[in-house]
Amino acid sequence: MTDVLFVIAEKNFRDEELFDTKEALEKAGLTAIIGAKTTGIKKGVLGKTAESTVALKNVNVSDYKAIIFVGGAGASAYFEDAVALSIAKLAAKSNKIVAAICIAPIILLNAGILKGKNVTVWDDTFHSYSKKLATKGAKYTGNEVEIDSRIITANGPQAARKFGEAVAKAVKG
After folding, report:
1. Residues 6+ apart with CB under 8 A from 35
2. What is the number of domains present in the chain?
């Protein structure tokens, strides 16, 4: 069993949120793979590339201990994506660790798994993601990293390493 599945956008995922988080997990002895809508090479906002080895439509949630949704502008493609939302819902229902960073907590929000949860998200005055959380019963904390039971969220690239450490600790129990 692979410990963690990262879900990245086809393009414009946030490089640090994938690579720094993944490095923290690997430092803790965990294994991770990358998935996206399709398999193949994907390019981050800052130009780094990552290979998706599993298409989201082929993800079996029971194969992982944690699912991490990576942010960056491209993550908005999953806000209403039925497959991504289904993965988040099933992972939460299966008591897996479900994590999201930057704008990706909106995926979890739209999957209906954040009601009553303390969460954080990248926020700015233009998008007001923090206000969107309240519309579906989530409690925005503004913290860099927020842990509420099996849900872990972080607010952006500067929190990626700390986010990875929090996910690693939760996976290892």
Report:
1. 5, 6, 7, 8, 52, 53, 54, 55, 56, 59
2. 1
Strands 49-52 and 32-36: unpaired
How far apart CA 53 and CA 155 sit, in angstroms, is 26
Pairing mode of beta strands 118-119, 66-69: unpaired
Query: Can you give the CATH number for the domain in which 83 is found?
Result: 3.40.50.880
- 116 exposure class (CB count in 10 Å sphere: 0-12, 13-18, 19+): exposed
**What is the mean pLDDT of each successive set of 10 residues along the chain, which is 173 residues long?**
95 98 98 98 98 98 98 97 98 98 98 98 86 94 97 97 98 93
Give me the residue label for tokens 């640090």.
16
AA identity, residue 104: A
Q: By C-alpha distance, which of 76, 81, 75 is closest to 56?
A: 81
Q: Which long-range contacts (CB under 8 A, 24 or more apart) does 52-55 make?
A: 52/8, 54/5
Cβ atoms 102, 155 nearer than 8 A:
yes
User: In which domain, by residue range, is 136 found?
Assistant: 4-172
